[in-house]
Each structure stands twice: as structure tokens, then as C-alpha cells.
Amino acid sequence: MAELPFERDFDAPYGVPEQVSGLVRRIVCRNPSPFTFTGTNSYVVGHGEVAIVDPGPDDDAHLEALLAAVAGETVSHIVVTHSHSDHSTLALRLKAHTSAPIHAFGRDPAARVDSAPGLDAGFDPAFRPDQALRHGDVISGKTWTLEALHTPGHTSDHLALVLAQETALFSGDHVMAWATSVVAPPDGNMADYFASLRLLLERHDKVYWPGHGGPTRAPKRFVRALIAHRQMREASILERIRQGDRTVTDIVRTVYRDVDPRLHGAAALSALAHVEHLITQGRVTCDGAASLTAQLRAA
């Protein structure tokens, strides 16, 4: 398996607004974990009239830090990249303090979203945006514009946001420099994830500001490497099925043997997403619906 050029040298202080570009300030929440790295990144975009991207988890200290960072300014928009609780649950409290509407893609309330084992940041069931953002929609302030790109895969409601003034992109959990994203069925979908990665290759952004960890400074090179990594991972999974592994659980023991054991639950979900993708391509079959314990066979 080819190694991705991860960047894990990231020691941003908690609760302190850092001016990371002319229009962007970053505030990191103190919610580190194997899944959130050092914590969730919130971003203040613009000056005077600002947007806050990804308020983060429901954390008193982080709310205080965000409000202090924008003291004397007007928050005109709260934008959420996706409805995982480590990105969205502070949005309502922030709205109560700022009166700014919440913008996000939003999800169908009737859609099936399971509580995924092995993940410590599930969906926020109460999350509802005030205004839905669809692919190509634009919101703006006096010094900035943000264009929404629908990038499903990690979640079905995931958005990336283009800051045109700086040829920059807020990538949420879609692309992160420190690790690969978990794609957890039934809401996560590997075919969608591949398509969303290829969408980014059509663009010419200079930097990605992610939901966790530091920026990606050579985005196209990293996205190409990420696609190649996922393709190789999928080929490895198919080969294990051809060699006789019959369940996702069996596959994870071998294919992910070098992965931190704390992440094996998440790895199993991404492996399941790859299996689903292989099934849709007619390369794998199973009895009934794909699951962690379903019996798999090479087609």
C-alpha cells in the first residue's frame, strides 16, 4: 500500500484565533481524539461582517473563544460543512448569541442514518439549517464570498466551500492532510466519495482548510494520491475476497493490520463502503444486503 504524504506536524493553540490568511482566522476546539486529531477547526471568514464555518461541538469554552474572536464584528452567516456532531452541535447556541442564520446542505429527515460503531462523532439528530445550500449556491459578506460545492461521500450532506478571494477551499472532512476520511455506510458512500474527489481535480484551488489538522498546500497532488490510495485499498479488499476472506471483519484483520487498533471500527466501515462499491461494479456478490458479517464472494 502506497503511503500518503500526510502532514501531522500541527500544534495550533486551543481557543486562540490565528490569522492563517488575509481573510481567514482559525480557532481550534479542545476535543482531540483518534478521529478528530487535535480537535475541530472553526474558521472566521472576512473582517467586520464575517461568516463562521463549522462552529464545532457543544463546548462552553469553544463558544466563548468564538465570541471573543468576533467581538465588535457582525456574524452574518453560520455555515456547517456536514451534520456530524463535532462540527454542528454548537451552531444553535452560536446563533442565539449572534442572530446569524445557519446555512448547510441539510438532510432528508427520513433518510436512514445509523449510529456507526467505532466512531466517536455521530450525526447530530437535531441539526436543521435555517437556509439550505445547494451545489453552486453563493453567500457573501462585504469582503468575502463562499460558493457551496456538494461533496458527498464522507456523509451525504457534506459541503466544501470555495473562498474565491483567496482561491481557497474549506474542505471539512472530505480531504484532510493528517488522515483519510471515514466513509461509513449507510450514509457514507464510496462511489460518491470517489466522484467528489474527482470534482476537486477539476478545480485550481491553492489551499484547503480542513475540519481537523493543518492545511493542504498542494491540493491536486494530494487528491490524486488520495484517489490512488483508495483504489489500491479497494484492490486489496477484492484480492482478500478472492483469497477466501468471507466477511468484512476477516478483511480488516489483514488489510488494516498496520492501522491503530482504536481505529479498526472505523476501518471496518470504510471497508464495508469499498465492498458496496465493488458490488455495484459487479465484482463482488453477497447473500442479502452488504454488512460487516455478510458472506462475500468474488464475482
Description of the molecule:
The protein has 299 residues and is α/β, with parallel strands linked by helices. It folds into two domains: 18-227, Metallo-beta-lactamase, Chain A (4-Layer Sandwich); 232-298, Orthogonal Bundle (Arc Repressor Mutant, subunit A), CATH 1.10.10.10. 28% of the residues lie in helices and 19% in strands. It contains seven helices and 14 strands. It has helices spanning 60-69, 85-88, 91-98, 190-201, 219-242, 248-255, 264-280; strands at residues 18-19, 24-28, 41-45, 49-53, 74-79, 102-104, 131-132, 138-140, 145-150, 159-163, 168-172, 207-210, 284-286, 296-298. The strands form three sheets. A seven-stranded mixed beta sheet has the order 1-2-3-4-5-6-7, covered by helices on one side. Helix 4 (190-201) runs antiparallel to helix 5, helix 5 (219-242) crosses helix 7 (264-280) and helix 6 (248-255) packs across helix 7. It starts with 17 loop residues before the first strand and ends with a strand.
Q: Mind telling me the CATH class of the largest domain?
A: Alpha Beta
Helix/strand order, N-terminal first: EEEEHEHHEEEEEEHEHHHEE
User: How many strands?
Assistant: 14
Number of domains: 2
* Fraction of residues in helix: 25-40%
Annotated CATH homologous superfamily of the largest domain: Ribonuclease Z/Hydroxyacylglutathione hydrolase-like
The share of residues in extended strands comes to 15-25%
Main pleated-sheet profile: 7 strands, mixed
The side-by-side strand order for the widest beta sheet comes to 1-2-3-4-5-6-7
CATH T-level fold name of the largest domain: Metallo-beta-lactamase, Chain A
